[in-house]
Write a structure and sequence with these properties.
12 helices; globular; 0% strand; mainly alpha; Farnesyl Diphosphate Synthase
């Protein structure tokens, strides 16, 4: 059972949790909205969707031969459960499909309430999950966009299930989450670039080459922080959301390591780890900023 669960890469699933929490905090800040039932259901669905993505990726990467060639790190290279025979491919596919189906059932419940707002997001997500590894990853420069927007839409979808709206505050969650998750995939692509290229993948690191592509990492982090600042300036997020910028030392550390070691996979691993902490912490602090904004509103009254 443990190996079967491991194909979902559970150590990465907290990403979906913190995105949902940030969106719930944003909804409560902007509209004093909190529906506990919807919150629990969207949290379950989001974690299941993330688990489905991971399991499908493991299934298709095994089928393409990628998993038997990549250097395994805690953050990149996939897992060797299928390669070593600890889990069968059909079991992995079944786990991925069951997770997706249960999440879809929850999605149908939400469609009964917010059909026009959620249907495009759900269709986009379903196509991205099922077709990413076998088809979409071969389209030039699409991989990072799909990963980022897929998780960004989890945040926006959560916001919709609480407020029934798409507004500036919802977008203020969508944008930084999209960029951060795109950067998570982006940096993890560096150790596997040669193998990905041989398998026909066309992500940004393959297209640009490591030397040019690596500069997109600090640029993306800067864009993340700028998006939060802009959200505050236009009133979509409270001034307390500035706390999310407290991760800038981590951004500097990860960028420095990446720029110096982009072509040395063992030396790049600390940047991959710092990047994971940076992304999770930034999203958590964004949620804290929204909650602190609620407290300030209460004190003023």
């Amino acid at each position: 059972m443990g190996a079967t669960v491991a194909v979902t890469r559970p150590n990465f699933l907290p990403l979906a949790v913190v995105i949902v929490l940030a969106a719930l905090a944003g909804a409560f800040y902007a509209h004093a909205a909190f529906n506990a039932v919807n919150a629990v259901l969207v949290l379950i669905a989001s974690v299941l969707l993330h688990a489905s993505v991971n399991a499908y990726n493991n299934f298709f990467d095994y089928g393409s031969g990628i998993d038997s060639k990549t250097m395994k790190t805690p953050f990149s290279g996939g897992v060797d459960l299928l390669v070593t025979g600890k889990v069968k491919p059909r079991t992995t596919f079944l786990v991925a499909t069951v997770c997706l189906l249960v999440a879809t059932l929850i999605g149908i419940y939400f469609l009964s309430q917010y059909l026009m707002l959620l249907l495009p997001l759900m269709i986009y997500g379903a196509v991205a999950i099922v077709a990413y590894s076998p088809v979409l990853a071969r389209i030039p420069a699409v991989s990072e966009i799909l990963a980022g927007t897929g998780f960004g839409f989890i945040g926006l979808g959560t916001y919709i299930t609480q407020t029934g709206l798409i507004d500036a505050t919802g977008i203020s969650i969508l944008v930084p989450v999209t960029i951060l998750v795109a950067l998570l995939l982006f940096l993890n692509e560096f150790p596997d670039t040669a193998i990905d290229k041989g398998a026909g993948r066309r992500h940004l690191v393959v297209l640009l080459g490591k030397g040019k592509a690596v500069w997109m990492y600090p640029a993306g982090l800067l864009a993340t922080y700028l998006s939060i600042l802009i959200s505050i300036l236009i009133g979509a997020a409270p001034p307390t959301a500035l706390i999310a910028l407290a991760t800038s030392p981590l951004a500097y550390k990860a960028s420095r390591i990446a720029l110096s070691n982009y072509d040395n996979s063992p030396q790049l691993v600390p940047a991959l780890g710092t990047n994971v902490v940076l992304i999770l912490t930034t999203i958590v602090l964004l949620a804290v900023g929204f909650v602190a904004g609620v407290v300030l509103k209460t004190v003023r009254f």
